[in-house]
Amino acid sequence: MRTYISERVAAVPPSGIRRFFDIAATMENVISLGIGEPDFDTPSNILDAGIASLRRGETHYTSNSGTIELRQALHDHLLRLYNVAYDPDSELLITVGGSEALYLALTAIIDAGDEVIVPQPCFVSYTAEVILSGGVAVPIATRVENNFQVTGAEIEAKITPKTKAILIGYPNNPTGAVMSRERLLEIAALAEKHDLLVLTDEIYDQLVYAPFNGDGTGAAQHTCFPALPNMRDRTILLGGWSKDYAMTGWRLGFAAAPREIAAAMRKVHQYTIMSAPTTAQAAGLEALRAGEEHVEVMRQEYDRRRRLIVGGLNEIGLKTFEPQGAFYAFPSVAVSGMDDEEFAERLLQEEEVAVVPGNVFGAGGAGYVRCSYATAYEKLEEALERMHRFVRRHG
Ligand SMILES: Cc1ncc(COP(=O)(O)O)c(C=O)c1O
Predict the structure, then answer these.
(1) What's the pLDDT tens digit per position in 217-269?
(2) What's the rounded mean pLDDT across residues 132-137?
(3) Distance between CA atoms of residues 50 and 287, nearest Å
(4) Residues with CB under 6 A from ligand 1
(5) Which atom of ligand 1 is closest in space to residue 37's alpha carbon?
(6) Measured in angstroms, how far is the CA atom of residue 366 from the centroid of ligand 1?
(7) How would you class 216 by CB atoms within 10 Å of its CB: exposed for 0-12, middle for 13-18, buried for 19 or more?
(8) Looking at residue 32, what is its pLDDT?
(9) Nearest 5°: CA angle at 90, between 88 and 93?
(10) Which end of the chain is more exposed for a tag (fewer CB within 10 A), N or C?
(11) Which pLDDT score, from 0 to 100, does residue 218 have?
């Protein structure tokens, strides 16, 4: 029989994260630092808003773009936080998670062979989605010496006549790096100079933390890319509720883009999805109206854990860059003499701690592992003890 699988799909490797989850799931005493989602449940007022919507009989499709109330609230939210304005009617689209927003963006803009520059390590879907859309992902390995922030010079070296877009995610999964305004301005200048689009995945935007050596108060600043001078009309902003509001299971995200691009994305969304889940949209509205305090409580707890795990990993010899956003630590495993795959596999087998080998996140990830601190403080303490034993044995 001939193969029926398209070349595009065959070209995408399976996600490297899954394999570890499957092994971990068979173990009894495992502590998983492999998880990429909040351990908190959705705050109760948000939950109640979803339930109330169901009780009101809101069990039907919404407008393709999402309810106008939610789009209006999202407009207000982006304006208030970042001073960037999108027309709720024509420039905002409510999607099935940030994942769908990414899919729509790439499907709407990529022709076969178009190149998308993808700084890495990064969320595993970026490269896969570029390939699925028919494009070519051009990786750049970011470096710890640059705080895992891509530089303008590194990007410019990869620009060719086929380059259409740059795809960056910050706060970053898996490194926890937050792009500084200065570095983002370098990207903005290149986008203008070479007439490129910038896709920014800012789904962890509200989970940013103060530097360890600061006075410990407040959060680091998140710079919203389209809010930079002249960038609104060159940017597709991708975001969502999953991480900030602990709402991964609701499947709610958004895209904000200039009118023409938003219309193209809406077309794809209309034919593939119809509308994002109605219940989730009602919950998402409550999150925007009355979620801020909950985000702050979770953010402070993540920060407490961040200090524990980053301090702990460095103490046991696993050199760890100071993450300033999301909920991941990304230690180097060099001291163990193992590569990241072997480290993760043996740590799981010998000490029952699950981490994700860094190479699955693309170029520059080999030699590191991702440890999520979206896990209870006490479990992190126990995981650190087990890792200490492991490193002592093998270091
Ligand atoms: C950087 C990044 N973007 C997007 C997503 C997908 O988010 P959602 O669950 O809203 O589809 C994730 C999930 O892990 C992520 O880490």
Answers:
(1) 666 789 999 999 999 999 999 999 999 999 999 999 999 999 999 999 999 99
(2) 97
(3) 10
(4) 36, 97-99, 123, 169, 173, 201, 203, 240, 242, 248, 253
(5) 14
(6) 21
(7) exposed
(8) 93
(9) 70
(10) N
(11) 63
